[in-house]
# Entry
Amino acid sequence: MDGVKLRIKYHNKEIEKLTYIDGKSDWIDLRCAEETVFSTGDFKLVNLGISIALPEGYEALVVPRSSTFKTWGLLQTNSCGVIDETYCGDDDVWKWPAFATRDTVLHVNDRICQFRIIKHQPALIFEETGKLGGESRGGFGSTGTN
# Structure
């Protein structure tokens, strides 16, 4: 199988190993590595129990799973986490920044967030112009309105 190799260190022997969910998505679920108790209004860095050496030129995007808020009332505080390939040491444990909107408890192996990797964008060259030349769509938030 062709693919990009990721070297993974597991810091908790109880969490399930990373894997694809066959046929469902190319995002990889991440799991809570230790029981974490939240009171309403708490902010905590949830331990995901892994360190990953990403290949040079790649970064990981970490976002909540679609059921995370419904199940636990947790919001990811930075909306989308970005982990670059320099965060690759044995003690560079991935964590998930969470804010609790209600009292809740995460247990070991709860699937709370997900990630995928992407290549860094190419160098960008900004060219100023007075006119773009494309057809205007009607402004921000106009798609799908009458």
About this structure: The CA atoms of residues 72 and 104 lie 6 Å apart. The longest helix spans residues 68-72. The mean pLDDT is 93. The two ends are 47 Å apart (CA to CA).
